[in-house]
Amino acid sequence: MKKPTYEELYKIAGTAHLLDELDKKLMVLLRDGRTLIGYLRCVDQFANLVLHKTIERIHVGREYGDIPRGIFIVRGENVVLLGEIDKDKEDNLPLTEVSVDDILDAQRREQDAKIEQQKLLSKALKERGLNLLADLGHDDMF
């Protein structure tokens, strides 16, 4: 039996692949909540990715900051969402870019506020005789 060519495999309905995305600018949302933006340079059968000129984008409210990360290798099982960046829309973001230090401070304040809110909820439930389950990290949810 003859081994199928790439073109023949490509025509099979439902075949998922990322080869058409090579050398395109992509946004990758990771399981731990981080957002990466970079150029897809390599992909394998496990959907492991190699991103080039990668930045980590942090959003807090209507502000964002970009941290340069360079070449980034992402294990396929950690990818939640992947999509191509529209260059026209990227230039007209309805967000305000701030410095890395400012966005990291804003992120820290946001996380502290969430922790405080979680403590208040836990206290209110405890007063009613209920216990809140231990926090599940991102890795524990999947």
TrEMBL record:
Localization annotation: Cytoplasm; Cytoplasm, P-body
Database matches in InterPro entries: Lsm1, PTHR15588, Sm, Sm_dom_euk/arc
Chief localization: cytoplasm
Keywords: Cytoplasm, mRNA processing, mRNA splicing, Phosphoprotein, Ribonucleoprotein, RNA-binding
GO MF term set: mRNA binding
Annotated GO biological process: deadenylation-dependent decapping of nuclear-transcribed mRNA; mRNA processing; RNA splicing
Key word Phosphoprotein present: yes
Keyword Ribonucleoprotein: yes
Domain Sm: 13-88
A cellular-component GO term for this protein: P-body
CDD domains: LSm1
Task performed by this protein: Probably involved with other LSm subunits in the general process of degradation of mRNAs.
Family label: Belongs to the snRNP Sm proteins family.
Description of how the protein assembles with itself and partners: Interacts with SLBP; interaction with SLBP occurs when histone mRNA is being rapidly degraded during the S phase. LSm subunits form a heteromer with a donut shape.
Name of the protein described by the UniProt record: U6 snRNA-associated Sm-like protein LSm1
Organism: Parnassius apollo
Taxonomic lineage from the root: Eukaryota, Metazoa, Ecdysozoa, Arthropoda, Hexapoda
Gene: LSM1
